[in-house]
Amino acid sequence: MSLSIVFMLAVSIAFLLFPNQIIGIYLDVQNPDNTAIVSIALPLLIVAAIAQVLDGFQKAVYGSLQGLQDTQIPMLLNVLGYWGVGLSASYLLGFQFGWGSVGLWTGQSIAIAVVAGLFLWRLRHLLAQRKRYNFRD
């Protein structure tokens, strides 16, 4: 999990340090016709940088849960986090607070953080349970 966070932090730092070069992969940032698109993409890249770290951690914890053959509860936690928290947060931030696309993606990032936290709680619970009953699988 730590290695995942370190790698994702490196990617996020690259997003923050070189936003024009990253956007330049997809379109010509020097072209005046693309100014509006670049102005939309820059704040979204900041949200993406944060989401990278959260998503990498979430995936690493989920992989640990799969290694413990725990898939049903994480599926329910995903539904709660993404459909309950994420969709609600995205709607509120994007439409009610007028953040637009940044609000939608921030809501999605909040969902990723919530799901990562729920997964970590589940993993710690399962490991404590195994330790308490001294399972040796």
Q: Averaged pLDDT, please?
A: 95
Alpha-carbon Rg, integer: 18 Å
The total beta strand count reads 0
Largest sheet: none
Strand content: under 5%
Total of helices: 5
Low-confidence runs of at least 5 consecutive residues? none
The number of distinct structural domains comes to 1
The span between the termini is 21 Å
Order of helices and strands: HHHHH
Shape: elongated
Structural class label: mainly alpha
Q: How much helix, percentage-wise, in residues?
A: over 70%
Describe this structure in words.
The protein has 137 residues and is mainly α. The chain has helices at 2-17, 19-24, 35-67, 72-96, 101-133. Helix 1 runs antiparallel to helix 3 (35-67) and helix 4 (72-96) runs antiparallel to helix 5 (101-133). The longest helix is centred in the middle third of the chain and has 33 residues, at 35-67. The model has no long low-confidence stretch (mean pLDDT 95).
Please outline the helices and strands.
Elements (H helix, E strand, L loop, with lengths): L1 H16 L1 H6 L10 H33 L4 H25 L4 H33 L4
Helix pairs in contact: 1-3, 3-5, 4-5
The gist of it:
The protein has 5 helices and no strands. It has helices spanning 2-17, 19-24, 35-67, 72-96, 101-133.
Keywords summarizing the entry:
single chain; 137 residues; mainly alpha; elongated
